[in-house]
Amino acid sequence: MSNSVLAGLVEGVSTGSIQIIDLTETLRPEYPTIQLPEEFAQAWGFKKETISHYDEAGPGWAWSNFSMSEHTGTHLDAPHHWVTGKDVPNGTVDTMPTSQMVAPVCVVDCTKEVAADKGFILTREFLQNWEESNGEIPAGSWVFLRSDWRLVADPDNYTNMQEDGAHSPGPDTECVLWLIEQRDVLGFGTECVGTDAGQAFAMEPAYPCHHHMHGTGRLGLQCMTNLDLLPATGAVIVSAPLKIIDGSGSPLRVVAFVAA
After folding, report:
1. Are 213 and 195 in contact (CB under 8 A)?
2. What is the rounded CA–CA span in Å between residue 125 and residue 129?
3. pLDDT value of residue 96
4. Longest Cα pair distance anywhere in the chain, in angstroms?
């Protein structure tokens, strides 16, 4: 049975009956990295330098060095990223169960709401209304907030920073707790630079998605793209982080398998 399932997957990909959708932003110096208040240490953006390129430094080969934060570009947040998850067993990217790297996804389309209000807050009620049309969110699944953020945000102000802080979409505390306690999700994902709303510092607790998701051993994905190419339900996400020792997170290639 297992051989036939895997053979069916390979055949589906080769024939196009199963599509592979890339949800990953290209790592590049100009891609924005989240900025913390000045009193805190900052994450590195992506930087790349040439070692050799078929030249005197290496006539027959091309390669480069690169540097960045664990939380740069399209990346995964492991439980140990947040203080509430610091004691979660197997909570780093090198110890997390590989079974968490493949999971179904529910894509919640909030594009109309975000177009009207870039700081849109996802609520439990909104998700329950979504379930009326799409079915109950399965346990062990990802929930992605689709905002089409690349089309909405100012490229020169990607977090939509205002005088009172960033304004970008994300869930409120009640929504996060409901996803954990009532739907037992694997994690929460977004196209923005963080899984929490831009104004989540003012919520109780501050940054509830980080606080509760990671505190209960769950995951985060952010800086994704192409969520508009996914169905509301039925896709399967593959998200395998780099195996960084004691890693709190990792850039990664996120792909979705979608039945054509």
Report:
1. yes
2. 6
3. 98
4. 64
What lies within 8 Å, CB to CB, of 77 at 6+ separation is 71, 195, 210, 214, 219, 220, 221, 222, 248, 249
Mean pLDDT, residues 78-85 taken together? 98
Q: Show which residues are catalytic.
A: 81
Predicted TM-score of the model (pTM): 0.96
Confidence class of residue 35 from pLDDT cuts 50, 70 and 90? confident
Q: Is 34 left (phi over 0), alpha (psi -120 to 50) or beta?
A: beta
Residue 116 CA to residue 43 CA, distance in Å, equals: 31
d(CA 177, CA 110): 19
Q: What is the pLDDT of residues 195-223, one digit of tens each?
A: 999 999 999 999 999 999 999 999 999 99
3 state SS of 205: coil
